[in-house]
Amino acid sequence: MLTYILRRLGAGLLLLVVVTMVTFGIFYVVPRWAGRTTEQLATMYVGRAPTPEAIQATIDRLGLDRPIAVQFWEFVKGIFVGAEYQFGRDVVECPAPCLGYSFQTYQPVFTEIVHRLPITVSLAVGAGVIWLIGGIAVGVVSAVWKGSVFDRIAMGVALAGVSLPIFFTGLLALAFPVHAWDWFPTPRYVPLIQDPAAWAVGLFLPWLTLAFLHAAMYARQTRAGMLETLGEDYIRTARAKGLSERTVVLKHALRPTLTPIVTIFGLDLGLVLGGAVLTEQVFSLNGIGRYAVQAITQSDLPVILGVTLVGAFFIVVASLVVDLVYPLIDPRVRIHD
């Protein structure tokens, strides 16, 4: 087991290095291939009224006139030992892990991400619990009661959930339950340790909106897997042995169905932890996703690069956790060193 975990950690680190190289190349190499000069790249960091002096100062500060390999090495080195950025006579410290320095907000990228991370984590965990439990429960009941009124209504709602984008359902949730009917307060983030009740109430509507999309997919996936499993020979054997229907469904039919569900859940949760862009934007939650949107609109490349790397990190960790959970769900799966 330990050898397997170390091997997967090594593969994850290698993947992060590849993602870093590709992302860095997209932002700093591809524009040069498209014909942009060093001065044009520096202009993106100066502001609305760049002067030749300010452009040259930015080039010197960022080292944009250095070879690409040197720029990449300086970025990677900053992750482990930190970096320094000079503004005239002033020197700004970016402590490790330094994912870059935003020249729009004049703040280290990693510091901003850590500040916004609790909002994104709260949104992801709350919605994840709802869509996982709700989606699986609806899928199991629909499979057991195949063709019933519940099955048809549930799958119809699931189809709507898959089809409707979050920015549409989110705006509907704000327009009617919040403003028109006054059922919920305006969504906002309150730290969990400060007031757990206000934390849950403030994020409940964003949780439902985000979970509605994913729960619909999980319900359809669970229903399809359950229908396939319920037709297997070992299920008929279990029923012939006199086992209760509850035992047959939950123990023998559901467990093999959960294997692909866990895979999807791990990737979905990793993606949401990397930033629930639409949900945070619709409900004005200042998480990582909204931070990325603001960086894109301002052409703040260090922020975009930092958020991309953080999102890749969450996906790698989620994939590792999924691999370790497999044997607990399906005894047929074994981890070999």
List the helices and strands and how they pair.
Blueprint: H1 2-28, H2 30-33, H3 38-46, H4 52-62, H5 68-81, E1 83-87, E2 90-94, E3 101-102, E4 107-108, H6 109-144, H7 149-163, H8 166-180, H9 196-230, H10 233-240, H11 245-273, H12 277-282, H13 288-297, H14 301-329
Antiparallel strand pairs: 1-2, 3-4
Which regions have little confidence, pLDDT < 50, spanning 5+ residues? none
Q: Order of strands in the sheet with the most strands?
A: 1-2
Count of all domains: 2
Helix-strand category: mainly alpha
Number of strands: 4
- Report the end-to-end length measured between terminal Cα atoms: 6 Å
CATH superfamily of the largest domain: MetI-like
Number of helices: 14
Largest sheet: 2 strands, antiparallel
Helices and strands, in N-to-C order? HHHHHEEEEHHHHHHHHH
Q: Over all CA atoms, what is the radius of gyration?
A: 24 Å
CATH architecture designation of the largest domain: Orthogonal Bundle
Q: For the record, what CATH class of the largest domain applies?
A: Mainly Alpha
Q: Name the average pLDDT.
A: 85
Helix content: over 70%
